[in-house]
């Protein structure tokens, strides 16, 4: 399993978001409070962030535990951003991919992370391989389940799907091919955050007009944190959070949507 977090809002230092909170993502690498599968997230980490005026995010990823990386400590202390996605990794199975398997994955304006595991990997997803062009398969950053799920999402984004539809259709497709998979996906383009809760915890906090955070678990005890129901698609910007049951994605979406009130 893994833990991940996305942020949109007023400019903050990376350390303010990822290190300083009492139960920060940094601390969740060895002491998560709500992780249901696995106990330590020390198999890699990464952060992607956006600079004003540049739609393509920068990334810093490493294999090994975040607490042992002095370069990350320096970055977190001085780099500021209005949008980021970060993750700490607990590898489902051993592999040689190292840094390449650490989220966030990236393409164009997007950053992506997968908190969970695909059951029966890789055999269970073999039928889905035919849906990807050979060039996209050969371009996979890593050979882990998360990288393949990202390839499925990215293929849909490049085909013109919205972020929400790309995540929702991918989750349903993978869950049908590999029942029992845990598929909490997190995606941002620096302006919006899209996520799925499917098999593990997902929380959000919004202060309309100031900030929105979406994370595997709260990084502090702020009473504004709310848990996302399982099998739900979340879409958010700095003003609103929208929750849509994934089981209703193919039904009347207008009747399925629930919009969080502004405060």
Automatic annotation (TrEMBL):
NCBIfam families, per database record: ergothioneine biosynthesis protein EgtC (TIGR03442)
Gene Ontology MF: a single term: hydrolase activity, acting on carbon-nitrogen (but not peptide) bonds, in linear amides
Pathway(s) per entry: Amino-acid biosynthesis; ergothioneine biosynthesis
Keyword Hydrolase included in the entry's annotation: yes
InterPro entries named in the record: EgtC, EgtC-like, EgtC_Actinobacteria, Gamma-glu_amide_hydrolase, GATase_2_dom, Ntn_hydrolases_N
Job description of the protein: Catalyzes the hydrolysis of the gamma-glutamyl amide bond of hercynyl-gamma-L-glutamyl-L-cysteine sulfoxide to produce hercynylcysteine sulfoxide, a step in the biosynthesis pathway of ergothioneine.
Residue stretches making up the Glutamine amidotransferase type-2 domain: 2-263
Signal sequence range: none
GO biological process, one term: ergothioneine biosynthetic process
UniProt gene name: egtC
Name this polypeptide is given: Gamma-glutamyl-hercynylcysteine sulfoxide hydrolase
Alphabetized CDD domains for the sequence: YafJ
Organism: Streptomyces populi
Top enzyme class: hydrolase
EC number in record: 3.5.1.118
Reaction(s) catalysed (UniProt annotation): gamma-L-glutamyl-hercynylcysteine S-oxide + H2O = S-(hercyn-2-yl)-L-cysteine S-oxide + L-glutamate
